Amino acid sequence: MKFDVFSLFPQVFNDYLNSSILLKAIENQLIEVAVHDIRDWASGKHHVTDEPPYGGGGGMVMKPEPVFHAIEGVLGVPPECPIILLTPQGRVFTQKDAQNFARIPHVALLCGRYEGFDERIRQHLVTDEISIGDYVLTGGELPALVLIDAISRNISGVLGDPDGAQDDSHAENLLEYPHYTRPENFRGWKVPEILLSGNHALIADWRREQSLRRTWERRPDLLEKAALSAADYAKLKK
Ligand code: ADE
Q1: 169-237, which class in CATH?
Q2: Do residues 41 and 66 touch, judged by C-beta distance below 8 A?
Q3: If you take atom 10 of ligand 1, which residue's CA is the nearest one?
Q4: Best substitution site from 91, 131, 141 to test ligand 1's pocket, by max atoms within 8 Å of Cβ?
Q5: Where are the domains of the chain?
Q6: How far is ligand 1, taken at its centre, from the CA of residue 48, in Å?
Q7: Is 188 annotated as a binding residue?
Q8: How far apart are CA 48 and CA 61, in angstroms?
Q9: What is the residue with the minimal CA distance to atom 7 of ligand 1?
Q10: 2-152 sits in which CATH class?
Q11: Residues in the ligand 1 pocket, defined by CB under 6 Å
C-alpha cells in the first residue's frame, strides 16, 4: 500500500517511519510512504503557504494554490486516490476505518497547520476528513502517523505473527485480554494458574471472558457494537 503524505513539516515523519515495525514493512515493500513538502509547490521567492483570513480574525489560513499544486503535481488531475484531510472537524477514526483503508492500494494524507485550510481545498480537492479524537493538535502530522501506523498493522505480513491484528483491542469491538510473561511470580504477584495449565481450550475461554469483562468495565459503549454469542452473554452474567 502506498501513502503519499503532504505536509509543511516533512521532517517530522523520519524518526517514526525509520523505527520498529514500520521500517520492516517499508523494507519488505509491504508499505511505501512518500512525504512531500507542500512548500516546494509554493510560488515566489518566499514560498508563502499561508495568509491572513479574508474577513479578519486571528491566525493564518493555508493557501489553496500550494496545496492543489502539490497534490495534483504528485497524483495527477484528477488525483488518482482518496485524499484524506487530517482535521479535528473530521469524523473520528476507528479500528474499522484502519481495516477498511488497509484494503485499498493508495491514499494521500494532507496535514494542516495554522488556523485551518482555505475552504476550497475541502470542497474541491479533499475526499475524506478524519480526526483522531476530540482534541486539537498543532498540526496534522501526528494524526497522519497515527493513520499510517493503524492502517499498516492491518496489512497482511506487516506484523510478524500470522494472526496479525486479529486479536487487537478494538478488532471486534472488544478490548484485549490481559497478557503475562516470565517470571511466573513477580514480587508475590502470580500469573493466573490457568495460563500455565497448557489447556488451550480453557485458556481461550478464560481470555474471552477477560476480554468481555474488561470491555464491560472500561468501554461499555463498545459492547453494544460487538457481535456476542450466547456463551459470551453467559460469561458476562457470571
Ligand atoms: N489536526 C489538529 N487536531 C487534529 C485531530 N484531533 N485530528 C486530526 N487532525 C488534527
Answers
A1: mainly alpha
A2: yes
A3: 87
A4: 131
A5: 2-152, 169-237
A6: 23
A7: no
A8: 11
A9: 131
A10: alpha beta
A11: 86-88, 112, 131-133, 135-137, 140, 143
β-bridge partners, 7: 37
Q: Position of cell 452474567?
A: 237
Contact between residue 32 and residue 26 where contact means Cβ atoms under 8 Å apart = yes
Tens digit of each residue's pLDDT (9 = 90 or more) over 24-33: 999 999 999 9
Which residue has the CA at smallest separation from atom 4 of ligand 1?
88
145 is in an annotated binding site: no
DSSP alpha helix (H) spans, the chain: 12-17, 20-27, 64-75, 95-101, 119-124, 141-152, 200-218, 220-223, 230-237
Active site residues: 88, 115, 153, 168
C-alpha cell at 190: 502470580
C-alpha 130, offset from chain centre: 10
Tens digits of residue pLDDT in 68-95: 999 999 999 999 899 999 999 999 999 9
ipTM: 0.98
